[in-house]
Amino acid sequence: MKLAVLALIWAFLIIPSSTFSQQSNQAFFDQVRVEKQIDSLYEKYENEPGVSIGIVHGDSLVFQKQYGLANLEHNIPITHNTSFHVASVSKQFTAFAILLLEHEGKLSLDDNVQKYLPEMKIENPGLTLRTLLLHTSGLRDQWNLLRLAGWRLDDNITNEQVLQLIYNQRALNFSPGAEFMYSNSGYTLLAEIVARVSGMSFAKFTEKRIFSPLQMHNSAFIDAYGLVIPNSANSYYQKEGTYYEDLFNNISVGATNLSTTVEDLSKWVINFSKPTVGHSTIFQKMNTMGKLKNGENTGYGLGQFIDTYKGIKRISHSGVDASYQAFVGRFPNENSSILILSNNSAINGGRMVQQLTEITLKDHFQIKETAATNHVQRKTPLALSTSRLEKFEGYYWNQKDRYSRHIKVVNDSLYYLRKDGSKTALQAVGENEFEMLIDEYISITFNAHEMILMFDDGYSIAFQKYEPADYNATSLSGFTGRYYSEELDTYYSFFTDEDQLVAKHPRLGNFRLKAIMQDYFIGNKGSFRAINFERNETGAITGFKVSSSRAKNISFKRM
User: Fold this and answer.
1) Residue 423: which CATH number?
2) Which residues sit opposite 462 in a β-bridge?
3) Can you count the helices (H) and strands (E) in the chain?
């Protein structure tokens, strides 16, 4: 379908049915077809927490429909003016606020963060506003830090408490600009910078400079407990067939905490193609993908992910907090956007985005066939002696996803053994290179104390060789005691139980740690994921460093 024809059809969709002429009936029926497809997916949520959907084309919200309930207790349906918490979709508004101030000459993206936030204990010249916007700052993520400090995400969490926790950090996950790692902390700091530079609260600034000019009258950043949000939807999760309210008591702004509607979000996305607020340079910067120091693309602009879906460009962001889910996706070359707001965690948000994109933009997909040329040609087998194969034997640990693999010689052949007992034979194709004897192409290369799995699409997984730990109650007693982190201002204690080390926190309770290798344990509680104990020159344990997915090597000292 040509773009001009699509534009004509979209235009007809917004005309009331009573004004359709016979010539335009086909366009109307196209709308009915689309609506029926969407109905088939979501009308089942009529008496459950549900979803609000909007489709924008050109400068109009051409389709919107709501399904389900905003409030289960009082049986209140979701309507066109129901307001949802949109979680990380908030970040594009924070980026826009920063860029408004930059356009006025009040700050620069290359300014150091400490220029505006001298409370920051991290002194690094590379820690700039730009790195915060691009998630390349290396800042530890605030939610990981809060969980490690003993907070629960249904606790009452103030903006000041989150800021103080970020200010108190002494180290970064990595050097600014070296990697991309999503960090909510950066956007919380950006909102505070907006407040300090503008002289008004972040909520007030965004209301005055963004929401009011765009007539987004049902949008606001929630920065105070008890603030009344008209027509707001509660969020719910399902457990054993019963829905429970999922509380979100955080009032930290910038990374999250925007409350808005589909109709208001339609005005926001239209502003990108038909600006009312902002300058062309602002939109260009937001829509430009960032780069690392090594020149690699990050896949992220300013407050937005940038990628393609089945060959068409997409600029988007999703958000999840408590059981709220949100998605704003712009397809600039098609001049269309998809808006999704939900208060039901039982709905698969990722699948919902995919389904609505298929329904809305299928005619524009540029599907590229993956021909056989994408498959790697298998190499010529090589015979290696058993003694040579035995050099590769051992245990290998994947640090990122926290699992191990065992490489072992069985009947003069090398095997890749998994935890579930399954195994795969490896065929040598080089002195240090093997291929798995399965239909899927996977090669394995051994380098010193490392094993690298490589797939035919170029994706790789790294494993480090290690000696499995062999602890008992006596040897584990050396780890027991109380440990304190100045960065988190919290304590953990360790004791032994049935030949296992157990961690104890006054708010998180007790949880067991699994020994992997010498002085290295993994946990399964919140963000307490990987623990490296540290020793002094005499071998006595002096502390440990704990890491989670987005907060690395936080120090604890033995008391």
Assistant:
1) 2.40.128
2) 452
3) 13, 29
Q: Report if residue 410 sits inside a domain.
A: yes
Confidence of residue 368 (pLDDT cuts 50, 70, 90): low
Alpha helices in 43-158 (DSSP H): 91-103, 129-134, 142-148
What pTM was computed for the model?
0.90
pLDDT tens per residue, range 448-469: 899 999 998 889 999 999 999 9
Amino acid at 508: L
Average pLDDT, the chain: 91
Domains held by the chain: number: 1
C-alpha distances out from residue 191 to 89, 92, 97, 253, 391, Å:
14, 11, 8, 7, 55
402 to each of 174, 363, 519, how far by Cα in Å? Answer: 20, 42, 15
Q: What is the 3-state secondary structure (H, E, C) of 163-181?
A: HHHHHCCCCCCCCCCCCCC
* b (16+ CB within 10 A) / e for 444-467: bebeeeebebbeeeeeeeebebbe
State which residues form the domain around 427: 374-466
Q: Indicate whether 433 belongs to any domain.
A: yes
- DSSP per-residue string spanning 298-317: -SB-SSSEEEEETTEEEEEE
Domain annotation covers residue 324? no
* Residue 300: inside a domain: no
* Angle formed at CA 255 by CA 330 and CA 84, multiple of 5 degrees: 65
Q: How many Å is the Cα radius of gyration of the chain?
A: 27
DSSP of 10-72: HHHHTS-GGG--GGGHHHHHHHHHHHHHHHHHHGGGTTSB-EEEEEEETTEEEEEEEESEEET
